[in-house]
Amino acid sequence: MNERKEYSEDMKESMVMMRNDGKTYKEISDVFRKPLRSVQSVIRRHAVRGSVKNNSRSGRPRITTQRTDVLICRKVKKDCKKSALKYSAEIRENMGIGISPSTVGRRINAW
Which of 15, 40, 42, 67 has the fewest C-beta atoms lying within 10 Å of its C-beta? Predict the structure, then answer.
């Protein structure tokens, strides 16, 4: 999977402001030490969208938060003899989150 680091919104806004002040793409890329093409993309995106914010990602949203994940792992550490099915039922009762046993298993393996 291609893992790319995103530029902060502050940096992108600064790039746009510098361009509005009359700086060239090359001068902006030298100041931020970023590729010229990246600077051009940021400024073009701002011109099209009117904002430097990133688009929302596609895909199904997570059903558990990081706090819920930690809670699941704590429960497993206390009593590791239970099955994922029992843990999912317990979470459904206590927290009101409909979570499948396979999701519980994935959260445990992730930690």
Answer: 67
- Residue 56 is classified by DSSP as P
Q: Which residues contact 95 (CB under 8 A, 6 or more apart)?
A: 68, 71
Cα diameter, the chain: 66
Q: For residue 67, which phi and psi values (nearest 5 degrees)?
A: -65, -40
What is the rounded CA–CA span in Å between residue 83 and residue 96?
19
Alpha-carbon span 61 to 37, nearest angstrom: 32
User: Whole-angstrom Cα distance, residue 102 to residue 61?
Assistant: 16
Ranges of each domain in the chain: 9-49, 66-110
* Per-residue pLDDT tens digits of the chain, which is 111 residues long: 556 778 899 999 999 999 999 999 999 999 999 999 999 999 999 999 988 888 887 888 888 888 888 888 888 888 878 888 888 888 888 888 888 888 888 888 877
